[in-house]
Amino acid sequence: MTENEKKNKELAEWLGICWHEPIDMRNVMVGAPIPICSKCNHNVIDAHRFNTDFTSDSGKVQLLRLMPEDFFGVDQYGRIVLTVDYITDKTGKLRDACLEWMRREKG
């Protein structure tokens, strides 16, 4: 697992999003029923393809929707403040900031 995948997995688990490890098909019995994830309804053989990449545009949108309001700064008018760097960055700045905040909150 890459460092990027490890960070995505940690954050997904904290947010309550499914994370699936790839399954080695050599260990699956022929004719056995394919297990289905009870959370996301994907079959567990293919489900790792649906793991969220929080550095992608769709992953950042999902992250912004799922993070607790305490994570965001608020201006004097009660509007959420988020720097453009977090939105335009492709390296994971938003994900890493969320992880750092989450780790502090967990203690």
Question: How would you sum up this structure, described in words?
Answer:
The protein has helices spanning 3-15, 57-66, 84-88, 93-106, and strands at 73-74, 80-81. It has 107 residues and is mainly alpha-helical. It has a domain at 54-107. The chain has a two-stranded antiparallel ribbon with strand order 1-2. Strand 1 and strand 2 form a beta hairpin. Helix 1 (3-15) packs across helix 4 (93-106). The model has no long low-confidence stretch (mean pLDDT 84).
Produce the secondary structure layout.
Blueprint: H1 3-15, H2 57-66, E1 73-74, E2 80-81, H3 84-88, H4 93-106
Antiparallel strand pairs: 1-2
Helix pairs in contact: 1-4
How far the N terminus sits from the C terminus, by CA atoms, comes to 26 Å
User: How much helical structure, as a percent, in the residues?
Assistant: 25-40%
Shape: elongated
Quote the beta fraction.
Answer: under 5%
Output the radius of gyration. Answer: 17 Å
Query: Which secondary-structure class do the elements indicate?
Result: mainly alpha
**Mind describing the biggest β-sheet?**
2 strands, antiparallel
- Low-confidence runs of at least 5 consecutive residues: none
From N to C, what is the helix and strand string?
HHEEHH
The whole-number mean of residue pLDDT values reads: 84
Strands of the widest sheet, in order across it, are 1-2
